[in-house]
Amino acid sequence: MQAIYRQPLVQEALYVASTDLFITLERWLTDADMTDKDRDKLDLAYAKYLLRMAHRPTPFGLFAGLSVGEWANQTDLHLADLITARRHSRLDMDFLGAVVQQLARQPDIRERLLYRPNNTLYQVGNQYRYTEYRYSVAGRSHHLATVAWSPYLQTVLDRATYGATLPDLLATLVSDEITPDEARAYIDELIDGKLLVSELEPRVTDPANIERLVETLRERIPHWPGLTALEQAVYRVHQLDQTPLGGNRPSDYTAILDHLHTAGFNASPSRLFQVDWIKSLSGQTLNRAIIDEINGAVSLLADIARLVYEPPLRAFQEAFSARYEEQEIPLLNVLDTEIGLGYPLSRADSSDNTPLLDTLMVSPKTSPSVLRASAWDRYALQQHSRLLAQGATEWVIDEADLRTIVPTAAEPPLPPSLYAMARLLAPSGQAVDAGHYQVVLQGTGGPSAANLLGRFTHVDPVLAEQTRHLLEIEQQQMPEVVLAEIVYLPPAHVGNVQLRVPLRAYEIPILAAATTDDAHTLPLSDLWLSVRQNRLVLRSERLNREVVPRLSTAHNYAFNAIPAYHFLCDLQRQQQLTGLGWSWGSLLTGASFYPRVRLGRVILQPATWLLRTADFFPTHLTGDALLAHLRQVRTQKQLPRRVVYGEADNQLPIDLENSLSVSVLRGLVKHSAQFTVEESFFEPNALLISDGQGKGYTNEFVFPLHNVAVSKPAAGVSAPKKAAEVPRQFIPGSEWLYIKLYCGLKMADTLLTEVVGPLAGQLLTEGLIDRWFFIRYSDPDSHLRVRFHATQPQAGHLLSYLHTALSPYQQSGLLRAIQLDTYKRELERYGPATMEASEVLFFHDSRAVVSLLELLEGDEGDTYRWQLALLSVDKLLDDWGLPLPDKSRLMETLAGHFAQEHMLDDTTGRVQFDTHYRRLRPTVDALISRTLPADEWGEVLNLLDQRTQNWQSVIQQVKRSYVQGLATVPFHDWLASHIHMTLNRWSRSRPRQQELVIYQLLHRHYRSLLARAKQSQLTSIPT
User: Fold this and answer.
1) Cα-atom radius of gyration of the chain, to the nearest Å?
2) pLDDT per residue over 485-506, tens digit each?
3) How many Cβ atoms sit within 10 Å of the Cβ of residue 936?
């Protein structure tokens, strides 16, 4: 180990990776007085670094580097001489940020800089809120800050919108009432509190940050004493890269550190340098046949994932719809934890400062969830049991058999591009070309291939150019939206991971400066959020276009992130499968052994063992006795000699016949009750890549994958029409009385037929109300929402009627609770000009539904319920005069939207709904053709005809609104909302699923009628 340590490249790599360890190892080499215990601890620490250096190919300092290859008809992958490799060094982003703050505190520099408002700033009532950042020894941290609004503050912010110097800002404040000193103190306070930020702020999409800083200082303050020191530091860092790998001594790095300290800059030796390694290839081609293998595996994983996929934003979307309905709300207001929803929903306390928890990944306690086994879960359990019974260590997938459980999807919801990360196992390039290779698929991700590539674009110009080209194709595939890069400087020392070149035309800056110009910068304050067509829609107010955010770098954004950043990063994955990997399903969690899984040449999952620490490492065994014990365990568990131990993405190879390697593993797991190891693949005969001396190297490939059948968002998203002149809200006591009746699902029907319907009829007869309507809802408790419109300006007098009618049900416990609430009209959904007409239509439909409910009895009534709902929708479409082709298209659209909501692809959805329709077709045909027994259906048809007569005048009024251009909601969207409300009134439970089935049945029947009509026309043509 000491011989390895003395190699110059190893020393430089260790210094860059861990300065503290390097300094200690220097003592390890020379200090004869070091105790055996301390020496053993250092042996293990050093061994861990050596194992990482030898095994894991993910780029990290000088431990592992990267190269860019290309597809070809044959494989030729060889490393060039080490002398041709390139080092790419830069100063740490946190150091840069701290320098910027240090400079900004100096008065002569502060006066010459441009300032803008903090880009997280937003107004709530008489306050401004924003995220303040601070620098300390621990690094950068973020804090929610609040400042009171004042006309002076507003004046300063307005002046600074597009950048202003300190003298410019002073000029806006100084007056007879405010002295220059007072104005200066006020603006200094805004700058110190980070409400105003300078032009020197680091840019995560600008690799030349330090050079830009030096250039700005040279231009603005050429005589500043510290400028030369910074220039020298930049020069010396560049000089490091001119030396061959291993040619830099640790003293070359410490000289830069000492130079900065002498000039007055605070810098930590362990957090000053960021280094990447670009390896040169003498052969850089890979046989393109490999990508076909990977594509097949990715397609299979996508179909498996569809069976278990849960949209991550669904809870937030439902909460948004419940509170804001069809409204479009400023994004920052929605994400505010006090006036909005916050994000994620479980972090309602995220605005509170809890320093005790700041560095911990501690999730709040959640309620236990009910395990629901899918078809895939059951199939995986069955196969696992079969393999264990056979003593097999590998499951070779029979795709034909698997497809009986996992059908092929026509268009899986994959993003425009994604990446596949894999390791290739083969003895040589010739073996690959002959088909003698295996691919270890580590996983795929998205929503863009750039998520993994972006991090290294600042290192290699070729990679940067290819990544930009890939993203241009993504934008071309989605021309109706703006794909915008999320630009964020995170807390702690994660800014180095975020650094990349500018990749997209538009950027959304969050606590970082954008590299785009103002025309292509989308501040958070420009973004508005709504729910349309069952998805969250982000819109730029300035561009009036939908914005789809993208983060083109690998960052664990969910940890310790501010809500805006976390939300935008989650939103980029909306309704898409973006992380695909093998899953054994939910029924096999905690199994002691998982066999290897292979599809053709692709290994989807390595063989994995879950081991009890106490059994594997008995406390009384060490040395040779322990190795002998481990041989017995390996035989018993079919455990190979070489395994890989991993925590998160940190993997170390372990040789279970090597005492030092075993000691490393023992030290890593000693505080755990159990641990997991995987089989190791990089045997000497599987090292595809070699150098000129024939030495083999481990590998890890990132393959960009292009999805030619990308699922696109709905086109033409624009700003909802404002509803300024029509009242939106009606509080209790106004002309609308809104009550919620909490009760059981079936009790709701009883209340409608025995209380609400009769009471409404009485109030109409007495002239106390002129309309009313109801809907069913859960929040999550089931209840009825009933609204009465009084003929007088105040509806409070109606409460006494309700009290009398409802008291018996409440006293008996059948009615759990009664709640008054504010009625908020959904003006964006129904349109200001057609809102009152919609309420009248709700009224006539509610009356008809209650009357029809009175006809339903017992279990037979439950069967009739869906038939009445379907008939009601068809009759509604007839009342509006829709011809059959229009009815068919509308139902096809609604069926598609609901199928997407329920994650039903074209294959699985079509098969089950076709079967369902064939079974119910006679009933559906009788309903649509109205060929129903008069004794059973006569009264039903009469009630629906009465509804037709009652709302005909309103229908004509709405049609005139559309003809005159007064209506603002597209007609078919508006009509779809009324259809949805009709079906809501019929569905006691699982309303979205029942609505889906109604649309599917009507779509198929209308399509069948059109086909029959077309066939009739063809057969009637004379020959």
Assistant:
1) 34
2) 999 988 766 778 889 999 999 9
3) 10
Determine if residue 916 is left, alpha or beta; phi over 0 gives left, psi from -120 to 50 gives alpha, anything else beta. alpha
As a whole number of angstroms, the distance between CA 413 and CA 308 comes to 13
Q: In sequence order, which residues have a C-beta less than 8 Å from that of residue 694 and are 6 or more positions away?
A: none
Q: In a 10 Å sphere around its CB, with 0-12 CB exposed, 13-18 middle and 19+ buried, how is residue 627 labelled? A: middle
- The pLDDT assigned to 338 comes to 76
Q: How confident is the model at residue 348 (pLDDT cuts 50, 70, 90)?
A: very low
Q: Which of 656, 669, 663 is nearest to 630 (CA)?
A: 656
**Mean per-residue pLDDT, 451-462:** 92
Q: Assign residue 648 a region: left if phi > 0, alpha if psi is -120 to 50, beta otherwise?
A: left
Where does residue 93 rank: exposed (0-12), middle (13-18), buried (19+ CB within 10 A)? Answer: buried
Distance (Å, whole) CA 864 – CA 749? 14
The token duo for 52 is 């990482």
Instruction: Give the DSSP letter string of 556-603.
Output: -TTSS--HHHHHHHHHTTTTS--EE-----GGGTT-SEE-EEEETTEE
Taking a C-beta distance cutoff of 8 angstroms, is the pair 617, 595 a contact?
Answer: no
Tokens representing residue 561 in the block: 């992130």
The total of other beta-carbon atoms located within 10 Å of residue 319's CB is: 16
82 DSSP β-pair partners = none
| pLDDT on residue 179 | 96
Q: What is the C-alpha separation between 468 and 449, in angstroms, rounded?
A: 11
Helix (H, G, I), strand (E, B) or coil at 106: coil
Confidence of residue 1018 (pLDDT cuts 50, 70, 90): low
What integer is the mean pLDDT of 681-688?
92
| pLDDT, mean of residues 317-331 | 89
What integer pLDDT is reported at residue 552 of this predicted model? Answer: 94
Q: How far is CA 788 from CA 763, 784, 824, 849, in A?
A: 9, 13, 13, 16
CA 274/CA 92 separation, integer angstroms: 6
**675 three-state secondary structure:** strand
Could you identify the residue written with the tokens 């309507």?
A: 773
Beta carbons within 8 Å of 677's beta carbon, 6+ residues apart: 608, 609, 611, 639, 643, 644, 645, 654
Single-letter code of the amino acid located at 836: E
Of the candidates 914, 901, 868, 856, the residue with the CA atom closest to the CA atom of residue 993: 901
* Bridge partners for 561 per DSSP: none
d(CA 413, CA 409): 9
> Contacts from 657-666 at CB under 8 Å and sequence distance 24+?
657/627, 659/623, 659/624, 659/626, 659/627, 660/43, 660/44, 660/47, 661/47, 661/51, 662/626, 662/627, 662/630, 663/44, 663/47, 664/44, 664/47, 664/48, 664/51, 666/617
Nearest to 787 by CA among 771, 807, 763, 810: 771
Neighbours of 610 (CB within 10 A): 13
CA-to-CA distance for 508 and 542, rounded, in angstroms? 13
- Three-state SS for 981-1010 is HHHHHHCCCCHHHHHHHHHHHHHHHHHHHH
User: What does residue 636 show for φ and ψ, rounded to 5 degrees?
Assistant: -65, -40
Least confident range from 349-358, 404-413, 757-766: namely 349-358
CA 411 to chain centre: 20
Q: Per residue in 761-775, pLDDT tens?
A: 999 999 999 999 999
Q: In 613-700, which ranges are E strands?
A: 642-647, 650-655, 674-679, 689-690, 696-697
| Mode of pairing for the β-strands spanning 593-594 and 608-612 | antiparallel
State the Cα–Cα distance between residues 394 and 74, nearest whole angstrom: 30
Alpha helices (H) along 325-374 = 331-335
> Average of pLDDT values for 631-656?
91
Q: 């501010």: which residue's tokens?
A: 562
Strand partners, 60: 64
Taking only the tens place, the pLDDT of each residue in 7-43 is 888 999 999 999 888 888 887 877 777 888 888 888 8
Residue 344: cis peptide before it, omega within 30 degrees of 0: yes
Which residue, 908, 879, 880, 909, is CA-closest to 892?
909
Q: How many CB atoms lie within 10 A of CB 239?
A: 13
